[in-house]
Amino acid sequence: MAFKVSVGMKATFRWLSCLAFVMLGSQLLAHSMEDRITELEKEMQEVGVTNPQGTFGAGFTFAGTEGANGWYIWIDPLYWHAKAGATEYAYSDKTVSVLANQNDYFLRPPIEGRVKDDAFGWDWGLRVGLGSYFFHDNWDVNINYTWFESNDSSGTTKIEPSAVISLKLPDSVPWRHARSHHDLNYNNVNLEIGREYFLSRTISARPEIGLKSSWLYDRQNVRYSEIFFPNLPQFSNINGKMKDKSVMWGLGPRMGVTVNGYIGDGFSLVGRITGALLYSYTRSSMSAGIDVNIPNVNLPAPIRMHLRSTEHHFVPTAQMMLGLIWETYINDKRQHITLGAGYEVEYFWRANQTLLAGDTTTSLDFSLPRRISVSKASEDIMFYGLTLKARLDF
Q: φ, ψ for residue 155 (rounded to 5)?
């Protein structure tokens, strides 16, 4: 009987030992799984993000360059070339003929010549900017200002039987001389917010959104002298002049993206494209006339025109840039510098709204009634060329 009790107690002890071992193993396994899950969650937090809706997903690693205080400034010297439509002011014709009565002319076909317009040269401009990083999520905001202006003067002279035909005066009479001076001023302010992040090990992108405000001032002055009548030399004292001006101010949303491709040793290829739609207000004016100053000759009053126009319209714009930059940290990584150069284009559609006047007769008899047609140029303006860059993060 004692033997049976001893055997039963041993069996019970073995069963209780196995149960205790299983329970201890379960606790150890649960503790180990909890540690692994905690470690995994910590790693996921480093590469992921929870949005305001509570959904968790992958997060893009910040790729910007930040100084000790989170501020940055930059300066971009610009060496640009300007292009503008509707700058044509005259064309030449080889075969202008004077009628027998010496007070009118006609163009003998075929008409052969060359159109004269204003072609701007290369000029220096400047862009400056100031920005700061947010403490949350490494977004940055900046404001930048661009200034550029250019001007051009050109002219043409012809001798009979050739002559210069005006494209700006309401009377397209033949002249011996034409000369034009053109001024173009550009001012721009951008306010933008963006965040730069890595798409891969060597590619980063910075999408941006903001506001764009642009001012464009376009003015052209043209003078014509010596009406072409060989047998009436006193007509050489007749001169024509025209002043045309278009001033545009626009404001609208702007968005775009900058992409960096890291080459190595601090060098990167950078490309940028942005677009904006400006709600614009344009003021246009034109003054034109022919001055008659012939002693002892009684002629009707000369032509005079003073016209003004205002309108609101949308002006689409685009900006593109491709270049190379070099960057490095300095002062124990408390500051960061960036140097670069690239080719940049800024394009404005229908920004030039200068007034154009045309006549319905070629007669020099100023007493005849006429209707002068007036239209708007609605031409594009663009700037392109070399953009240098120097930026300091501090």
A: -165, 170
